[in-house]
């Protein structure tokens, strides 16, 4: 069954049309590379899928069921998680504490409740093993590389057993070695049958992991095709308008 179907998604802010009738399909375990210039509508589309705000028009279906989100929690209940560019990690906390941030495991001692660090460390360690990451649960985030920080953010999404993970510029401002770590993490998500929507300006990263590429230009979808049937040159032309559509 198709994992996600967007039909005629539009979004306007007064006279400004951010998205115009965008229709996309995402399969289970598929990596979709979402590309476009600044202001093309990528972030708006992702925030609609993530439940940050509703579309002005259009329909969204997950596993064949029509869904309407009023807040991000609604999207999370349907198995949608987002990893934004700032990662929203707390530098002064451990990897495990960040994985469980806002969803802490608790223990009870009579009327008292306290954090169950042992449980959180055990679960976080298992998630890092699934991702084949060298990140350790007790490591402080402030001492981590960019690749390790991404591992923590991705592990946090796995806590809810997601169907779809959306990643916004995960390889921006990190080293070449760390880029490979992050692309490997995306591959692990795919291996677990999780669909990934990857937003990136880095063409080599998109073509390294994406099964399908979608290009937005001025709020309109101008291409959605298998990555193997496209090229960096074609995508560049689609982004700039040198190529009208593909």
TrEMBL record:
Organism: Hartmannibacter diazotrophicus
Protein family per UniProt: Belongs to the ABC transporter superfamily.
SMART domains according to UniProt: AAA (SM00382)
Segments forming domain ABC transporter: 4-243
Gene Ontology molecular function, alphabetical: ATP binding; ATP hydrolysis activity
EC primary class: hydrolase
InterPro entries from the UniProt entry: AAA+_ATPase, ABC_carbohydrate_import_ATPase, ABC_transporter-like_ATP-bd, ABC_transporter-like_CS, P-loop_NTPase
Pfam families referenced in this protein's UniProt entry, alphabetically: ABC_tran
EC number of this enzyme: 3.6.3.17
Name of the gene encoding the protein in the UniProt record: mglA_5
This protein's UniProt keywords: ATP-binding, Hydrolase, Nucleotide-binding
The protein, known as: Galactose/methyl galactoside import ATP-binding protein MglA
